[in-house]
Design the sequence.
């Protein structure tokens, strides 16, 4: 029996009916454009959130997390409403609320995606529950439908205005590939991302920085993109080329213009990256990662000193490319680097952080892994 099933039995005095897991993610490129209908290119990491679930014959929801020891949070199905629950529990309850279940459940979560590292531990939690509930309650929802449900839970139940990228990749990713996702209709293509045979690794640097701006800053950037769309009278930033956008600069205020400029240039960088990957041109991919970072740092202004130092140090150590990933203002950066340079790079980044008086960073590497699935039932 799996470890989580044993813990579930100890806690709830019965065996789970289903165990499922969903991974966190790293976004290779295509940052802050999922909410502008863009193409993005994330992949799933090997760290997952695992959930064990069993139905009850009443309307109680009992929820516990391995990371919060045996503390059981209890709520009635009839009392589910936005913001009900402890902060972490809201992500789980939100999914139950959106999917609509007709009996209570016992639910145990084992979250193994590093928290606060910008690797989408929240999407992993939501999607592990979405896939388990879909299976146990015979919902027959497709992966894109489950992604939309998980996003809705985060938007409306938890109150975070995230886009659709993290939930989609957590559900739809394939091992060995990055997911080229069209955020407009959630169609996707698996783009092989096999860097090991090239002697390369993708180093993930968790800066351990969490700047307060994160909540307001994300919503504010999103609002700027929406303003650009409204003022230019277009359907989305997806529907305008870089040249067309630049030609209309005078119609927008400077801040709105520069935010939208990040979005339209990032959309092009994603498609150029796919082309680079299809031609095994990792030097070109590295240049595009660097350009993405500069755009996020200078135009979209969602980077921070820790992320910039991680990126600059990785490049000084010979990385082909490096950039911040995720929402920004902290969290992780990635560096595409020769495998035999990884250790030296880690040492240099740790030293640079210590010299700058920053908290010690953490390092991970991960191959592109499989999306959410039921492990046992
Ligand atoms: C966060 C959000 F949740 C995503 O939807 C996406 O916008 C990302 O930031 C930035 O690309 O992870």
Sequence:
């Amino acid at each position: 029996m799996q470890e989580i099933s044993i813990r579930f039995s100890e806690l709830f005095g019965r065996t789970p009916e289903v165990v499922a897991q969903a991974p966190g993610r790293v976004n290779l490129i295509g940052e802050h454009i999922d909410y502008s209908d863009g193409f993005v290119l994330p992949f799933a990491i090997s760290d997952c959130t695992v959930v064990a679930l069993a139905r009850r014959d009443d309307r109680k929801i009992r929820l516990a997390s391995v990371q919060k020891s045996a503390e059981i949070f209890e709520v009635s199905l009839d009392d589910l409403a936005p913001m009900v629950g402890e902060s972490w529990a809201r992500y789980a309850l939100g999914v139950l609320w959106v999917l609509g279940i007709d009996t209570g459940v016992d639910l145990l979560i084992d979250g193994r995606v590093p928290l606060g590292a910008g690797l989408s531990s929240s999407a992993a939690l939501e999607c592990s529950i979405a896939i388990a509930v879909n299976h146990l309650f015979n919902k027959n929802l497709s992966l894109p439908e489950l992604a939309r449900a998980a996003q809705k839970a985060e938007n409306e139940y938890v109150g975070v205005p995230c886009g659709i990228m993290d939930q989609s990749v957590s559900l739809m990713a394939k091992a060995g590939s990055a997911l080229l996702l069209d955020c407009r209709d959630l169609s996707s293509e698996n783009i092989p991302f096999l860097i090991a045979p090239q002697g390369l690794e993708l180093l993930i640097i968790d800066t351990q920085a969490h700047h307060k701006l994160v909540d307001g800053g994300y919503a504010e950037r999103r609002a700027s993109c929406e303003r650009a769309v409204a003022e230019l009278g277009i359907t989305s930033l997806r529907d305008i080329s870089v040249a067309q956008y630049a030609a209309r600069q005078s119609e927008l205020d400077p801040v709105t213009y520069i935010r939208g400029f990040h979005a339209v240039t990032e959309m092009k960088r994603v498609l150029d990256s796919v082309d680079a990957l299809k031609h095994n041109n990792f030097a070109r991919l590295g240049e595009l990662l660097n350009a993405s970072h500069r755009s996020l740092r200078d135009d979209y202004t969602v980077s921070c000193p820790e992320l910039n130092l991680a990126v600059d140090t990785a490049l000084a150590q010979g990385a082909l490319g490096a950039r911040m990933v995720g929402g920004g203002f902290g969290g992780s950066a990635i560096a595409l680097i020769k495998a035999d340079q990884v250790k030296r790079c880690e040492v240099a980044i740790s030293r640079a952080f210590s010299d700058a008086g920053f908290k010690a960073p953490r390092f991970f590497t991960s191959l592109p892994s499989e999306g959410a699935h039921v492990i046992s039932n």
In short: The radius of gyration is 21 Å. The longest strand covers residues 39-55. DSSP finds eleven helices and twelve strands in the chain. Residues 27, 31-32, 34-35, 162-163, 165-166, 326-327 surround 2-deoxy-2-fluoro-alpha-D-galactopyranose (CB under 6 Å).
